[in-house]
Write a structure and sequence with these properties.
about 550 residues; globular; Rossmann fold; five-stranded parallel sheet; six-stranded mixed sheet; binds 6-O-phosphono-beta-D-fructofuranose; 13 strands
Length: about 550
């Protein structure tokens, strides 16, 4: 079957299913069994989507018709799946275990990956044992990661999620993350830190990102001012550079022995598995980091080998395709019911929207189908007190991902265990009310309610139930989302691995920097920009 035939079958099904309410679909007692899928400690529950098992078969036929199997093999095999930058996207190689080989452009990338892991291991050992010394000879006890986007969000999200998994060795090291270009995070933080015992990790694939370089310059100056020492001494004792551009890191002054490298074929938003994951390794120990990699690798294998009908990333992607392209739902909320996953929504915002926020196909034509929806999120219980009103009674159709661990606090206090039960109950209740609306109530009570107390329901959602949150299962979860993104990109025929859309703004900002110093804004600018520049200049002079 060709993709167009598959799309037209799906459109026919959508005509029928658009008229059905989830409350009708959920009255089928077999539904959960036929629409929930388990693999290695993760359960993907698709039973609250407005589709039938037969619809999933049609979606799988679409994936087949789009050549998904070959495209997965191309991704994992190291083909140049990123044609606009003419390179592979080999985040899967970063978690391939030692002993395997993968030749890309004539080089075994797995061997290179393993070498970097060894270097990270040594570095983490030196830090944990108090042997990395600052300019005064005192041991480093504070690490500040300076990076932005993919060089910040993955390590930040993971370190926060796995706080409980810190080995004793890492407990003596405080970890901070600084990303904001305006310096507000750094200025607040520096006043609380001891320069003699603080190490900065400059994380930047390109080593040209102005946000990161501006924060790095402030940190470097702070150390020079505090120590009164030469810049070379400061850089040797207090800066590590993680990058794919060692020549740029050298230019900035990071000595070679303080550099950890990764490769051009690692996309920024796919880089937490590379040396960019150093803060994770510092926080969880190298064992924790390796478990994270093992979890992701197990999903890579599953993605490549499992039939699409049982393949978690593929199924998650197909449910999204159904909602976006067949049911016209273009908003997607990420709702973890676990405070440890507080940064997961922003991590996924970058992963999904920077990857699939595209409107041009691989051939350069206009995309035939709507692509990535608007994604946002928050810790679920907190969002209940913020934007759930819109989910329940607004005019927008929204699809939601509920992410929750089944077990938590198993060895902790009764009250904490009770709090976990509370989170589970709220997660299940919200998914239920979003699906059923006031049909969750008895008919009489629902009908007696005034209009402003009615709940329409019919909002689709996925529940991802994780046995327990561990480094391994977090690795699985993130890899599932990465491969979901790739699967959707294959179906939409777009390139998920470039991000040209962010370049023009960067260029314009550089030009605007000069404008800020001009007494009169350039006539070439638009009137709105000229107006604001004039106002800012006047205010800065007062
Ligand atoms: O501007 C977007 C972007 O290139 C992201 O893709 C990337 O994760 C981020 O900036 C940071 O880039 P770098 O690691 O090169 O500093």
């Amino acid at each position: 079957m060709n993709p167009e035939t598959c799309w037209s079958h799906l459109r026919e099904s959508a005509q029928v299913l658009k008229k059905q309410h989830l409350s009708e679909l959920l009255s089928d007692s077999e539904r959960f069994e036929s629409l929930s899928f388990g693999h290695d400690g993760i359960l993907l529950d698709l039973s609250r989507h407005r589709l039938l098992p037969e619809t999933l078969d049609q979606l799988v036929a679409l994936a087949d018709a789009c050549g998904l199997k070959e495209k997965i093999d191309a991704l994992i095999g190291g083909a140049h799946v990123n044609p606009t930058e003419d390179r592979a996207a080999l985040h899967t190689a970063l978690r391939t275990p030692a002993g395997k080989t993968l030749e890309v452009d004539g080089t075994d990338v797995v061997a290179g990956v393993q070498k970097t892991l060894e270097k990270m291991d040594q570095l983490v050992g030196i830090l944990h044992s108090g042997q990395w010394r600052g300019y005064s000879g005192e041991a480093i006890d504070t690490v500040v990661n300076i990076g932005v986007g993919g060089s910040d969000l993955g390590p930040l999200m993971t370190c926060h999620a796995l706080e409980e998994f810190k080995p004793d060795a890492s407990k003596g090291i405080d970890l901070h993350f600084v990303s904001s270009m305006d310096g507000s995070q750094l200025s607040g933080l520096l006043s609380r830190l001891n320069p003699a015992t603080t190490l900065f990790v400059l994380s930047s694939k390109s080593f040209t990102t102005i946000d990161t370089l501006a924060n790095a310059a402030t940190a470097r100056q702070w150390l020079i001012d505090a120590s009164g020492l030469a810049v070379e001494t400061i850089l040797r004792h207090h800066f590590i550079g993680i990058t794919a551009k060692p020549e740029k890191a050298c230019e900035w002054g990071i000595p070679e022995q303080n550099q950890l490298l990764f490769w051009d074929w690692t996309g920024g938003r796919y880089s937490m598995w590379s040396a960019i994951g150093l803060p994770i390794a510092i926080a969880t120990g190298m064992d924790g980091f390796r478990q994270l990699l093992a979890g992701a690798h197990s999903i890579d294998t599953h993605y490549q080998e499992a039939p699409f009908e049982q393949n978690l990333p593929v199924l998650l992607a197909l449910a999204g395709i159904w909602n976006i392209n067949l049911l016209d739902i273009h908003a997607h909320a990420i709702l973890p019911y676990d405070g440890r996953l507080a940064h997961l929504p922003s991590y996924l915002e970058q992963l999904e929207m920077e990857s699939n926020g595209k409107s041009v196909t691989l051939d350069g034509a206009d995309a035939e189908h709507r692509t990535c929806p608007v994604l946002w999120g928050e810790i679920g219980p907190n969002a209940q007190h913020a934007f759930y009103q819109l989910l329940h009674q607004g005019t927008e159709a929204v699809m939601c991902d509920f992410i929750v661990p089944a077990k938590r606090y198993t060895e902790q206090s009764q009250t904490l265990q009770e709090q976990h039960r509370l989170a589970l109950a709220n997660c299940l209740a919200q998914a239920r009310v979003l699906a059923l609306g006031d049909k969750a109530l008895d008919e009489e009570t629902a009908a007696a309610a005034p209009a402003w107390k009615r709940y329409r329901g019919n909002q689709p959602s996925t529940v991802i139930l994780i046995d327990e949150l561990t480094p391994y299962s977090l690795g699985q979860l993130i890899a599932i989302y990465e491969h979901k993104v790739y699967t959707q990109a294959v179906i939409w025929q777009i390139n998920p691995f470039d991000q040209w859309g962010v370049e023009l703004g960067k260029k314009m900002a550089t030009a605007m920097l000069n404008e800020l110093d001009e007494p009169n804004p350039s006539a070439a600018l638009d009137s709105a920009t000229r107006g604001l520049l004039g106002r800012i200049t006047a205010l800065r002079q007062t």
